[in-house]
Amino acid sequence: MGDFGWPEDESVVKRRVVCGVKTNDRFNLGLILGDNVYLEGTQIDDYDRLDRVFAQSFPATTFPFDFLAILGNHDHMGDVYTQSLYHLIREPRQYDYVFILLHHHINDGCGPHRYVPHGNPLIEWIRQSRATAVINGHNHNMQKISDERRQRIINAHQNGSTAKNVAEYETLLSSTIQNIIKKYSETGRIFIENRGGQLVDENCGLSLKQIYQNVATRFDITLSKTEINNYFGQKHSSLKAIHIIPNRINDPNTICKRNPFAHSFLRIEENYPNEQIYFVDEGRSSIGTPSILRVPNIRSRNVSVFCAMNRYGVVHKGINSRPYNFEAFLRRFLKRNLWAVKPKPEGCPLTIHVYFCPHNSELRFQEIRSLRILGHTTGARERITCSRPAVFNQVIGLIYTTEMQARSRVDCAKSSMLPKPLLLASQVGGSSRLQLCCDDSGSSSYTFRVKSAESPGADGSTSYSTVK
């Protein structure tokens, strides 16, 4: 049986059917084929309703045999674990039968819920394997009458047999025989028609224009594109295409690229002690929480967190009321975090490697910054390699502005003067060299020498312009 999911007090039909069949054929096993509880399955731990559906509908005193049940699509709308526990057979020694259960996904190989243009492969598979029995639940793919059988019914009726006589030797209902005969007398057609919807099911990537042209060509019916689109809207269907983005995170090529990238960190660890290695990043959400959070429709600040840490803990952290882009990230990194770390010995260089990883599925780790800022007693020299020329000048300005702050011991009150040399540095050409020439007297005046991009003079000397 299938689709009987009402309790006994709501539907007494199923008990009458089982009693009637049992009177004619003394079976000793009941198979329940799905949709056991209407309309939306079983609630969590709602064993009372299951008891009403099964035990009260088929009491053991009247039906002294086993009922084996599987779950249907309506059962899967509810809590499947409650039904599974209700019917659970826990040990192999309790198994009496071996069944192959085929549900919706494999049954989609033939109708009625899906059009298959090249026949019914599931029916052909069952014919070839010579299955002992075919048991159907709420997907009635096997219950259609074959075209050969329809032809035989029509021939018998034309030879003078009545619908009742044909139903007896065909073991079909009289109403089914009458419907076949009636359809033949009205349309002259013996074979069953295919269901609609084949056009879109054959190719779900058709556009509105293509559907419009196909309908006009196949059926000689002219419909507007708006009418076709409205019909899809009524069926809750959409013609929007879905593009599947391949996941390359664990692609073999990606794994090969990841290996040398990981070893590059080991080389850094060999050259520098642990206390000189820092890991810097910014984030916007707590661990284990989504990056996008639904909040009330009110205007609020966008808070981002900046953090630098080494193996021994967090060295510096800061909160920004705006999101970080690349320039803001680098500005905060160079202005604050470089000088918040433990001071280094005089003349000892501080080397920073900044890695950039784009936010997509491809692993393209690439060293785009190698900043080497010397100690303040050795003088400021440009040590930067950059693969993004658009921000090259800004990076130079940030480096020299930060170096000025370290060399001249500028305190917080004087740091407001820093945007001027930053602006000056950002105007330097791509091949020019900006030199800092100042002493350690703490003066608030700075002298820059800008190397000309032109060729050297006749005597081989290099020309400079001095700006205070």
UniProtKB/TrEMBL annotation:
InterPro entries in the record: Homeodomain-like_sf (IPR009057), Metallo-depent_PP-like (IPR029052), WH-like_DNA-bd_sf (IPR036388)
Superkingdom of the source species: Eukaryota
Name of the protein in its database record: Calcineurin-like phosphoesterase domain-containing protein
